[in-house]
Amino acid sequence: MTEDISSIIATAGDHMSKAISHLETELVKIRAGKANPQMLDGLVVDYYGSPMPINQVANISVMDARTLSIQPWEKNMLQPIERAIINANLGVTPQNDGAIIRLFLPPLTEERRKELVKRCQGEGEQSKVAVRNIRRDAIENIKKLQKNGLSEDAAKDAEAEVQVVTDKFISLVEKHLASKEKEIMAV
Prior knowledge:
By secondary structure, the chain is α+β, with helices and mostly antiparallel strands. The protein contains 4 helices and 6 strands; from the N terminus they run H-E-E-E-E-H-E-E-H-H. It has helices spanning 3-29, 78-88, 110-147, 152-185; strands at 44-47, 50-53, 58-64, 67-72, 94-96, 101-104. The strands form 2 sheets. The protein has a 4-stranded antiparallel beta sheet with strand order 3-4-6-5, with helices on one face. The chain has a two-stranded antiparallel sheet with strand order 1-2. A hairpin with a 4-residue loop joins strand 5 (94-96) and strand 6 (101-104). Helix 1 (3-29) runs antiparallel to helix 3 and helix 3 packs antiparallel against helix 4 (152-185). The termini are far apart. The model has no long low-confidence stretch (mean pLDDT 87).
């Protein structure tokens, strides 16, 4: 196999692993009934006119299995944090006691669990599409090499190798989805 082909396959594998990392990040944000500080990742708070991630203006900790506490480093940040949580539509109402904000996560109903599983499957489908697009791009690059003089047999072997890498990452997406679904549906 030439350097070009191995480079194309390595690049495709690298991009596919980034798609898996993105899936993992998105799945962590979907709550499975347990309090998890990472649920608030990506939540942006208005900090004196500029948007800041919530974890840079407050300390987020788990009080118990269903409660998160958010302790701002400045008392006057309670209202903006509370507003950001309400606007994020997380399905929880913040409880502000003047010093800290508590998020009580209600137990998930069967219907809500099924909605969360559908959302997970949607994220998984997006990841699969991303992996398939990466495969398509890699195969197009191999076909360009074939037009520039690569033998047909070498091109077919390279395409088969790209498919093997693709199958590996698709099965990884399936494993992540299955474990998250099991976590969500556990009562």
